[in-house]
Amino acid sequence: MINTERLIDEFLELVQVDSESGSERQLADLLKEKLSALGLDVFEDEAGSYVEVGQRTGNIIATLPANGGQGPMLLFSAHMDTVKPGQGIKPRRQGGVITSSGDTILGADDKAGIVAILESLRVLQEQSIPHGGLQVVFTVGEEIGLKGAKALAYDRIQAPMGFVLDSGGPTGEIIIKAPTQYSMKATIKGKAAHAGIAPEEGINAIVVAARGIANMRVGRLDEETTSNIGLISGGVATNIVPEQVTIEGEARSIDPAKAKAQIDHMVEELQKAADQLGAKAEITVVKEYDSINLAPDSLPVRIALQAAEQIGIKPYLGKTGGGSDANVFNGQGIACANLGTGMSKVHTTEEFITEENLLNNARFVLEIIKTAQEFQE
């Protein structure tokens, strides 16, 4: 049985530990202590030493060996970092709802996921519930580009499947589809000239970029696919033909082939405009993360569906246009669904979560572990 007050007290404790992206050290040390006290083998990887992560804190990977259970080893994950403003959080508990004092975020994204995992582990140990082995991964840098998950020490991961607790839907939401995303950064190089005296001697980089963008398919392309040009900067003064402009955009789709086709189209249109107007285009494309595309009858989904029903929670299979650590895990061959936690108005000072959702999250995680014993890989 989940200890509701212990669960809520731990949530209130954790949200008061500052952990904005890049500053997860204090929280990581606390979580390592908690996991070790629960009997898990705890390891911190070297994600913090990578230039692209830029932090001193690594991901936490904790392992609990099987204790006689016959089900598959499962991974449960949540991220440690929060967005800003996330320093000096003062939680308020009133009428079954937990908020911040109003001048910061709350940090339910993703400490609601963390406490659900921790409380489930406690009950698991207290009641000697059999399981086929568990791994817990608490990542850094999720809010700044899934950086911790991308730099995770995957050679330490033994679980073939798992669950990330980081979606905003209610407990019972099981995200089985999410997009592949590509980002694009293009620098258009034209030629400077005096705009009033000799504009014909210049090549206007902004005009080149504008022509390329005008010929792009941008926005909602179909039910699965979107694209966007989000940043553009360049030019020096109105009396100078701009020599250089930088454009940043993205393409994403639940269908990986569509995402790739769209980013290729965007690159092609910029290159075509540069060629037509005599400019140069230097374009970089990065695949930010892979898609989640789990079949409704895949093993982790079947386990989650049955677990929800067994504790009286109505499950539903969903899709999202956003990315999470679950995308990265799936790209590494770990079949991961992203579970709803009931966190609301995240990334704002109006963020809140209900005590009922905190309780149901822990109940759901615990029941998933128990239910997995009825399945074989």
TrEMBL record:
Cofactor or coenzyme needed: Zn(2+); a divalent metal cation
Gene Ontology process terms (BP): proteolysis
A GO term, aspect molecular function: metallopeptidase activity
Residues that hold Zn(2+) 1 according to the record: 109, 166
Highest taxon of the lineage: Bacteria
Record flagged with keyword Transcription regulation: no
Cofactor note: Binds 2 divalent metal cations per subunit.
Transmembrane as UniProt keyword: no
Binding site for Zn(2+) 2: 109, 143
Residues in Peptidase M20 dimerisation domain copies: 183-275
Active site: 142
UniProt xrefs under PROSITE patterns: ARGE_DAPE_CPG2_1 (PS00758), ARGE_DAPE_CPG2_2 (PS00759)
InterPro entries: ArgE/DapE_CS, Bact_exopeptidase_dim_dom, PepT-like, Peptidase_M20, Peptidase_M20_dimer, Peptidase_M42
Entry keyword set: Hydrolase, Metal-binding, Metalloprotease, Protease, Zinc
Family in the record: Belongs to the peptidase M42 family.
Protein name listed in UniProt: Peptidase M20
The organism of origin for this protein: Desulforamulus ferrireducens
